Amino acid sequence: MTIRVLLDTDPGIDDALAILLAIASPELDLRAVTVTGGNCPLAAGVANARSVLALVQQQRIPVCAGVALPLIRPAFTAAETHGASGLGYAILPQSAAPFASEHGVDCIIRELLDAPGQVSLVPVAPLTNIALAIRKEPSIVDVVKEVIIMGGAVRVDGNTTSLAEFNFFVDPHAAHIVLTSGMPMTLVPWDITRDVMLYQHHIDRLLAIDSPVTEFIAAATRFYLDFHQASFGVAGCSINDPVALALTLWPELATTQSVRIDIEYSSELTIGKTVLSYVGDATHPPRDTDMTGYAAAEWPATWRSKQRPAHNVKLVTHFDTETFIERFVSRMEALARLFPRD
Ligand code: RIB
Ligand code: CA
């Protein structure tokens, strides 16, 4: 039985790679791609998602425009990371498919209510669409099968401020609504995804296949590689969003720990910071180190009161990057072979 997936995106180079991985995975039934403002403005993100689906002849999959701006904060985009178009140096033709008329928030609500307990919701963007879907139809929290979120920086510096990861920084109020919703959430933080990298040798391997698909991946990631080299001094590029999608396919690649994650959304100085707490005996923090992989002595000094909110997410603490990258590149090769250059 195929796995029903909804991808909520801000395409974005790594968002585009997540869309391609979904298409390259016969186990998945990609029901729709919803879009919000983030890496690039909403309209550009919608056009990019449509073009990527057209590249692999999947125009039948609806791309639904969602909310353009964060709930309260001003728009914040990332042209330095993803390029002016949002897809780096790649140039794709506009899709000729008719525009989907359904709003992204309504698409999420409908897909979840139509198939209770069957849909994996994978937000890899600011959480504005998800937050408004919860506000518009609160019952979706009870019918979603799982929510696998790419976002947050828990025990490492952020990639947008010294404290905050991009998706959670752009709309921290939406992230707060989602994190406190009670949905069955898995959080894939920047802690993990920053080390899940494509390198030039992966791109060279793909370019051995003459296809518009490999040409697109190479052009998009060439900008992304340049950005990572200039910004982080690394020769690879972090493919954050495909990691979240991968957990619908291969959950065994991740180790998770049930914890409490909250987000700062009121202090201008620390806005977007994700705060990890554990729910355990107030005076005896966890001793074994398989609790999120941190030794008890490393645990951040968090709430010591007896009263603590319950755990709200399964935090990914370890990920089998090597296995995933091989599977990702292999699936991109297989996808490209379906579309040889004429
Ligand atoms: O911090 C990385 C995340 O922010 C990724 O989803 C990237 O596409 C951007 O949306
Ligand atoms: Ca994204």
Q: Which CATH architecture would you pick?
A: Alpha-Beta Complex
Q: What would you give as the CATH superfamily? A: Ribonucleoside hydrolase-like
Q: What does the oligomeric state look like here? A: single chain
* Rg, nearest Å: 19 Å
Structural class: alpha/beta
Helix proportion range: 25-40%
End-to-end distance, in Å?
34 Å
Q: Write the CATH fold name.
A: Inosine-uridine Nucleoside N-ribohydrolase, Chain A
Give the mean pLDDT: 92
Spatial order of strands in the largest sheet: 3-2-1-4-5-6-11-9-10
Q: Write down how many β-strands occur, each being a DSSP E stretch of 2 or more residues.
A: 11
CATH class assignment: Alpha Beta
Strand % is 15-25%
The molecules bound to the chains, other than polymers, are:
alpha-D-ribofuranose, calcium ion
